[in-house]
Design brief:
The protein has helices at 53-65, 78-84, 114-127, 153-163, 188-195, 216-224, 247-254; strands spanning 29-33, 70-73, 92-94, 99-101, 107-108, 134-137, 142-145, 170-175, 178-183, 205-210, 228-232, 242-244. The protein is α/β, with parallel strands linked by helices and 269 residues long. The radius of gyration is 18 Å and the shape is globular.
Length: 269
């Protein structure tokens, strides 16, 4: 079944505009972290971000202290995550759960339909009309970004909607200054739940931090398991229990040595 932009938005997020900060990391956590907008600030182009050495070192240390129970849960592909976080290869879910690499290194993914290559080329033609618009080839998914070209939003949304009939089994996924064409029947929540059935995540308290609409399924999943959900940003309507203002505060929460400016953070205990 194909879905529209409206159908992929969370159906019943909880309005909770006065969330406090989350508790500090604990050794019994299974820690799941979104990347863009959570660990890393947004950039006008998806390929313009980089991972500070201090962040990478802290993630490696956290993974060790958690017995390996740390995973990235991102809209980026696993290939892109590996390039960003090189030389590390973290346990991860990519493309909002379409791709998943377990802690033992075994991966699961989805093939890219032949029609997607032609649609990508057509999207590039549309994006070229708007300097700053970006078409991101994610393999089995396609992202259309207008962060650097706000005037392109309507054209890119309209184009994406028009492409759905050519991609059976695909849906539109709205995000922060982006819309994606991606396979149905996968989301961040289902990826987190799959990890929680496997070593070294099984039996631990799940914790997930993310910033975007695509993270709401992850919040719901960890909430249902008695875990901790952390919204990064100031969206009022969300299932998240706790909140941090931006990636700089996420770094402070995780104990990353200062690499991004941040206001004082009072941690809940």
């Amino acid at each position: 079944m194909r879905q529209s932009l409206e159908a992929t938005a969370p159906s019943s997020p909880n309005p909770a505009p006065h969330r406090g900060p989350p508790p500090p990391p604990a050794d019994d956590w299974a820690l799941f972290l979104d990347v863009d907008g959570c660990l890393l600030p947004f950039a006008e182009r998806p390929d313009a971000v980089s991972v500070p050495a201090t962040l990478l070192a802290r993630l490696v240390a956290l993974r060790a202290s958690l017995g390996g129970a740390l995973a990235l849960v991102s809209g980026r592909s696993l290939t892109t995550l590996d390039r960003l976080f090189a030389p590390e290869r973290f346990t991860a879910a990519g493309l909002h759960g379409v791709e998943r690499r377990r802690a033992d290194g075994i991966g699961h993914g989805a093939p890219s339909p032949a029609a997607l290559a032609a649609i990508r080329d057509e999207a590039v033609v549309v994006a070229r009309r708007y300097p700053g618009a970006v078409v991101e080839d994610k393999g089995a998914a396609l992202g259309l970004h207008w962060r650097g070209a706000p005037q392109a939003e309507v054209a890119l949304r309209t184009f994406a909607q028009a492409m759905l009939p050519r991609l059976p089994g695909y849906q539109l996924q709205p995000g922060d200054h982006v819309v994606e064409l991606r396979p149905e029947h996968a989301d961040k929540g289902s990826a987190i739940l799959a990890f929680l059935e496997e070593a070294p995540f099984a039996g631990r308290r799940p914790v997930f931090a993310g910033d975007d609409l695509t993270d709401e399924t992850g919040f719901a999943a960890v909430n249902a398991r008695g875990g901790i959900s952390v919204l990064v940003g100031d969206r009022a309507a969300s299932a998240a229990q706790f909140a941090l203002a931006d990636p700089a505060q996420v770094h402070r929460w995780l104990g990353v040595p200062a690499s991004l400016p941040a206001p004082p953070l009072e941690i809940s205990r």
